[in-house]
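Sample intake sheet
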Amino acid sequence: MGCAASTPAVVEPTAPATPGGGLSRKVNDDPDSHEALARETFFTRDEVAALAELYAQISNELHQDNLIHKDEFMWALFKANRDNLFAERVFELFDIKQNRVIEFGEFVRSLSVFHPQAPLAEKAKFAFRIYDIGCNGKIERSELKRFLVALMADNPDVDLDEQALDEIVDQTFSEMDLTKDGVINPEEWMALVHRNPDIISFMTLPVLTEVCQRYPTPHKPARARALREQ
C-alpha cells in the first residue's frame, strides 16, 4: 500500500564553485547530518538536534535498534496501539525508502512539511497523498469511504449506516469533483484547500515548536551528546 518516495520540502542548494572551477567540498558530506537536514528542511540546526533526542527516545521505545518501527511510530505520534488507517498512511509516507522503518533523516525530512513555516501548497500535496491510498494520483470514492469507516472505528460516538456513508461521499464529490469524472485530482484538491484551508489544519503541528524548545535537555547523557554532535 506504500507510495513512491516523498521529496524533501526544501531543495538543498548547490555547493558554491571554487576559484579553480570545481565544487567546494562540504564540511560534512553526511546527507543526514544536522547541518544538511537544517539546509534541506524548515528546521534550524538546533531544532534538528532537538528532534534527534526525540527520535532516540521513540526509536528505542519498543525495539532497541535506533530505528522507528510502525508500532513505535503509531503509539508515539498517534497513541494508537491498533489498526489506524490515517496513522498507517502517514507512516508509509514517512518511510521514504520503503523498508518498513523510519530512519532519522526520513523522520526530519517528513516532519518538515508539518512545520508551521511550511507553505500551504506543500502541506496540501502531502495531505492529498495520505488520502490517495492507491498511489495513482487521484482520490477515489472507495478511498474516501475507507477513511470515513476508519473514522467511525476510532470514534464510537459516530455511528453511520451504509446509506449515510454513501450520501456523505456523494455530497463531498459533488462539491470537489469539478470535472465530474468520478475522482478528485490534485488540481481539484488544491482548489478546495485554497477555498477552505482549515480542511488540512492537521498538517500544521504547533507542538513541533514545543518539542524543539523542550529538547535538548539541560544535562545530556553521553548518548544524546553524541547524537547532537553528528
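Comment: Residues 8-25, 219-230 have pLDDT under 50 and may be disordered. Residues 135-201 form a domain with the Recoverin; domain 1 fold (CATH 1.10.238.10).
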